[in-house]
Design brief:
Blueprint: E1 7-19, H1 24-57, H2 70-83, H3 88-91, H4 102-116, H5 119-126, E2 141-144, E3 153-155, E4 161-164, E5 174-177, H6 184-195, E6 205-214, E7 217-227, E8 235-244, E9 250-254, E10 260-261, H7 263-291, H8 305-341, E11 344-350, H9 370-384, E12 387-391, H10 412-418, E13 426-427, E14 436-437, H11 438-446, H12 451-462
């Protein structure tokens, strides 16, 4: 059996443009029918699981009949729907003897139900710590496609991508996916899924589909897995340190040489960030001013309640989130490629708990999604077979990476007063070492093995306070 530990799982989402082999009305009816019946089946399954747990552990009825399987509950729901007036031939369009397809309730049980039916979950419910989980009517529709051969995603002669959705009896709905606004990475994923026609273990395999309605549009999320990158060329003793830059978004350096990514590589992205932040502030202020105008003003947004006033701001926030996400993807990609190109088996990043004071003085500042950036670095590093370690950032910007001396007067105020042409101040070690760019110096420190212990010992030697990371 293939080693599952050597595979990674990800999700890509695409908008459904239109159904290919039926009308939107027919496809919409299938979606609504399946979603409603799955909603009822899911809540029935949760309720029965809770009652079974209650009887067994609170009432001592260990000889109870136990819990029905979801397949049995699906058949019971079918009989209930027939009593409610649903015609049997209509139900047969979705399942031969149940209410929904086994591909759907099987996927739902594996991806959703099992998580809310755990014993620890029920204990917390009985103790009053959490409420009984309830699925809503607009829940996503999962479809199991892991064992389907050939692949359910196909590329047409015109270069478009179509998908067969196994959510009812044949003929399955066939839909066209939108590829107009997707990234090159998503296009590459689709190509790899299509090329693996047998859905074999050696390539990219689709595992589950999930259909979700959002703002009157339908989207298909594809859960897929693929082999983890071969990490034989990476070395655990080669470390990349990533520092939150003062003049650029971030600075990265390696421990075994002078290679770095800094001002030259990051400045274009830095300009994009600055522009985005300026536009965000200006646009938000403009919207807020417009919302405060008098009703007689032709551009006024007042008079229709708080929701109408805030609607443009909510739309703006969505665009801002997407822009930040794109930039963080670009930043994290630069870091991973830098590590791979130099055979680094480890990336060390700053622990966010120790950055409360440092963030205010950096290029990114407190408004940047630095946690998101770190998460992107972590999951991309995992795909590349690179280990990520978090280190305490205390004194990493004030330690000389050449001799280890801690220049404790190298403060934010010092940097501000000594910076030139937008670049951060040079780090000039009092012991006479070669002056270094302060961001590069900090990144070199972070790239040092056992850096926390080395700084801790040096602080003790110089009688300087070392701040440990706050406990959880």
């Amino acid at each position: 059996m293939p080693d599952k530990e050597k595979r990674l799982t990800k999700v890509a989402t695409f908008q459904i443009v239109k159904p290919v082999n039926m009308s939107w009305n027919d496809f919409g009816k299938i979606l609504r029918d399946v979603r409603y019946r799955l909603f009822r089946l899911a809540n029935i399954a949760v309720s029965e699981a809770y009652l079974n747990f209650h009887k067994k552990y609170r009432m001592g009825q260990t000889d109870s009949e136990g819990m029905h399987k979801v397949s049995t509950l699906d058949k019971i729901l079918r009989k209930t729907l027939i009593k409610e007036g649903v015609k049997e031939n209509e139900l047969s369009r979705y399942s031969r003897n149940g209410a929904v397809s086994g591909y759907i309730y099987g996927a739902f049980e594996k991806t959703k139900l099992n998580a809310v039916r755990s014993q620890s979950k029920w204990r917390d419910i009985i103790r009053g710590k959490v409420s009984l989980p309830v699925f809503k009517r607009d829940l996503a529709i999962p479809i199991n496609c892991s064992d389907h051969r050939p692949s359910m995603i196909e590329k047409t002669e015109s270069g478009e991508y179509e998908v067969n959705l196994r959510m009812c009896q044949k003929p399955y709905p066939r839909v066209l996916l939108s590829t107009a606004k997707i990234s090159d990475g998503q296009k590459a994923v689709l190509e790899r899924l299509v090329s693996n026609k047998s859905n074999s273990f050696t390539g990219y395999r689709h595992r589950f589909f999930e259909i979700k309605e959002k703002r009157v549009k339908w989207y298909l999320s594809v859960s897929y897995d693929f082999p983890k990158a071969d990490a034989t060329k990476l070395h655990a003793d080669i470390i990349v340190g990533v520092d939150l830059g003062w003049s650029v978004p971030l600075y990265a350096a390696i421990n075994n040489g002078a290679a770095r990514i800094g001002y030259k590589k990051m400045n274009p992205l830095g300009d994009s960030i600055k522009t985005l932040q300026r536009q965000t502030i200006a646009r938000r202020r403009s919207i807020q001013r417009a919302g405060a105008k008098d009703l007689s003003s032709p551009t006024a947004r007042s008079g229709h309640g708080r929701k109408r006033i805030l609607l443009p701001i909510e739309k703006l926030e969505g665009k801002i989130d997407n822009a930040y996400k794109t930039l963080n993807h670009q930043l994290s990609h630069c870091v991973i490629e830098f590590a791979k190109n130099h055979g680094a088996g480890v990336i060390q990043i700053e622990n966010l708990k120790g950055l409360a004071e440092e963030l205010s003085g950096t290029f990114i500042g407190q408004n940047w999604r630095y946690n998101q950036l770190q998460q992107f670095i972590k999951y991309k590093a995992k795909e590349a077979g690179i280990e990520v370690k978090e280190v305490n950032p205390c004194k990493t910007s004030r330690r000389c990476s050449q001799c280890g001396f801690i220049y404790d007067d190298f403060t934010f105020e010092y940097r501000q007063s000594h910076k030139k042409t937008g670049k951060s101040a040079m780090f000039e070690c009092p012991k006479g070492c070669k002056p270094l760019n302060s961001d590069y110096n900090a990144a070199k420190n972070i790239a040092t093995a056992d850096i926390e212990e080395k700084i801790r010992l040096q602080c003790k030697k110089q009688s300087i306070e070392y701040k440990e990371l706050p406990k959880d």
